[in-house]
Specification:
The protein has 14 helices and 16 strands. By secondary structure, the protein is α/β, with parallel strands linked by helices. It has 2 domains: 202 residues, Aspartate Aminotransferase, domain 1 (Alpha-Beta Complex); 250 residues, Type I PLP-dependent aspartate aminotransferase-like (Major domain) (Aspartate Aminotransferase, domain 2, 3-Layer(aba) Sandwich). Strand 2 and strand 3 form a beta hairpin. The longest helix has 21 residues. The chain starts with 20 loop residues before the first helix and ends in an 8-residue tail after the last helix.
Length: 464
Amino acid sequence: MNPKGVVFCDPIIWAMPPNDERLSSSIDIYRKKTPRSAKIFERSKKYHVNGVSHNIRFFSPYPFVTRSAKGRSITDVDGNKYTDYWMGHWSLILGHAAPPVAALVRKQLPSCWMHGTANEMTVTFSEVIQKAVPVAEKIRYVSTGTEATMYAVRTARAHTGRKVIAKVDGGWHGYTTDLLKSVNWPFEKPESLGLTDDAHIVSIPYNDLEGSLKVLQEVKGDLAGVIIEPVLGGGGCIPARKDYLSGIEEFVHRNGSLFLLDEIVTGFRFSFGCLYTSMGLEPDIVTLGKIVGGGFPIGVICGRDEIMRISDTSMRSKSDRAYIGGGTFSANPVTMTAGRAMLQHLRKNRGVYNKIGRLGDMARRGLEKAFGGRVAVTGKGSLFLTHFLRDGVEDIANAADAARCDTEMLRRYHFEMIARDGIFFLPGKLGAVSSAHGEADIKALIGASERFSSLIEQQVPANV
């Protein structure tokens, strides 16, 4: 496949090679196992674009329809049970329907699940976040990570009086118009129709400090801020180099701009708190989501007090303020209760991080061994992604390296495990280990990967 066709955040319906009997057989197996899912999906297409409400949830020939989920597993409407490594877009660090969260949510529901007024649960939840995230001197809640990054960008522009925002190639911060640029390879093409702010977004190469500083130098006079994920999620599950992040931060602060870290994926994923604290960084704004919601809708904007004051409408005139946060379901009592339950459990049970980190290491080592020199497995802690190497790529340092790998083979590999092994990755996406997984699950994953590797051994030369 031409790498220019690679899409990280939109679905690809990969074509079956004409003589590939193995893939044809896998699709037949899948269809026989999921007839009710097929019927429901046909109904869904009558009401929903492409049959889904989130582009990436579609995969060919059709996605199975989930009936229930618990612990490490999800069960579809046909009764098939899958060991899940997608884990709710990587948000379920304790597994599905985690008892510590479910217990407090059930207790909250009889009182109220939505009232649209201030509530004490927000205060107690924020107390936990503030103690764990030093930059969270002031906090605003929204319902999605997309909203959180949108408001982070607006805050940077409002505080500095500048317009330009820099992001990295392959960086995914949700579908906000402010940041929907240079997400998909080859990065120079428009991501979508209907965008109006393209001129005020610049893109910098991930893990390339010299190249990034060259771009930032050209726009420094109007640079409001730089937003970066400390682990590039949708762009390949690639950790940022510490010297790269510290170099960007130094330039940004010297320039009077803001340093924004998108920790929606990484926040509370590797330890109790944010990844930036272990890297010696001092961001101005951090966005959170996923894990901190306990499985319920959430987005969080955390920032230094002097910066977040720009949204204080009680103290500023209409011409000197920015609307940050808001939304009917922002800080609703159920999400606040679930988030507090999740973080309180993680604070008291920090051994969770040792367990899932060890299992993540086991998965990365085992997968690389299973595929020999054919793959590189990126990630950190409990996150991992397998890249099928080609075109001379040996090291996955950025989204361009990931795009040059055989992403079609990755999707086929994931689909084969769904169809034949009852192991679920959203095809083409990284995997996340939860505390509900165990060593037996990782061994089963490695065994399934060894079987797939043996099948492609004669078809795909090893990249050595």
